[in-house]
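FW: tagging you since you asked about this chain on Friday. Here's the raw sequence from the shared folder, copied in full. Didn't touch anything.
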Amino acid sequence: MAETRTFDYENQPQLFGHPVGLYVLFFTELWERFSYYGMRAILVLFLVSETAGDNPGFGWTNSEALVLYGWYTMLVYLASIPGGIIADRYLGQRKTVMLGGALLVAGHGTLALPGVTAFYAGLGLIVLGVGCLKPNISTMVGSLYRPGDDRRDKGFTIFYIGINVGAFLSALIVGYVGENIGWHYGFGLAGIGMLIGQAVYVWGQKYLKGIGDFIGTADSPDNEAFSRPLTNVEKDRMKVMFLSFLLIIVFWGAFEQAGGLMNLYAEQKTNRMLLGFEVPASWFQSVNAFFIITLGTAVANFWYRWKHRGREGSSLFKMAWGVMIMGWGFLFMTAASVQYDETGSAAMYWLVLAYLFHTVGELCASPVALSFITKLAPVKYASFMMGAYFAATGLGNKVAGLVGEYAQSAGELEIFTGIAIFCTVVGLIVLALLKPLKRLTHGAEDITVEDTEVQGGFELADENLRD
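HL: got it, structure written out here
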């Protein structure tokens, strides 16, 4: 039996101008990302660590570690497609997030155990858990706002800050524990973080009533939203979403060098001495998160003011600029490579500057892309399209692994410079095609609350545009 409760927009308790449910999802995702990014910060370092010594790893080569990193991070996000289907057709988003959290607790706990079998079993459970949780919790954020509500992009930025509070803390805490006490203790600590996140989500269910409930399938005779065919407007919007996924693949294919190639660069080719203390390589994974926390609101407010001054403020415009700005960050890695070739060591500030540009680019592209999907996705494919977005992210992660692996033979100087040039070209192409791409959205980003039909928290096609 499909659940029919709807979210009470008018009477929701508010906190700092947003529904309290946003902060429930904020803290749930904070701890989920604490667990994921904590494990990510030490994964490659664990794999290349020698098998002998006080803190043994698997003793793999850089190339072998980057291959696994690429496959793992791809599968984590590709699993969002079946995770979205499970939510759309069987459980609803809210229950699927609950299932994902349980799988993640089990996965990170398994990684804490020694041995190859436990290692691969833990990775498998994490893949399944992220696949269930990631697309559906993001979809639920969009459902907290009426269509046309200008707070939605800001809400996603707040949610995104939660992601990066978790990432910042995990890289410092899990990274230090993993590198200095024991890799498996680090993996176990990540699992404790996920357990806290699951507890927060269970506690906050009272603020999520009517959000993410299962609303039936096409087989439900009383469910018009799932049984009716897509309109021409909705089909156009699906097209532009899939086209935007190509931009997402490019973005994450470059950005995710952070956990692979740049992580190894920090450990093996960077002078990490600071006032007599050697900064752990994994700590650099927190720099991006730190900048997101400190700059996230400022970037969101910049775009808010930019749009309300009558300037171009579409999601595709922001995403194109995000790809270019992120790409320019690799020019600092080009400088680091030149310095390394000349002196045998690169300064830490090159990595910090690269992550600064990566962060500004990410804030222009990633939370905006999440909001973009919730604006355009038809009700019947809401979770599936969010899953497809994360699948594109996964393909970008795989590209990142392939690029990092190729850099072992092609040279890091050439790879870093090539990424910067390629991202710039792609961003300029999108800007050149912006007008025809925007026409495919049929004004979805211009709809106001008054002239929009609401169903399940997502826009349906404007009645005046339906064929």
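FW: Confidence is low (pLDDT under 50) at residues 448-467.
HL: agreed, and The domain at 17-217+225-445 is CATH 1.20.1250.20 (Growth Hormone; Chain: A;).
FW: great, closing this out.
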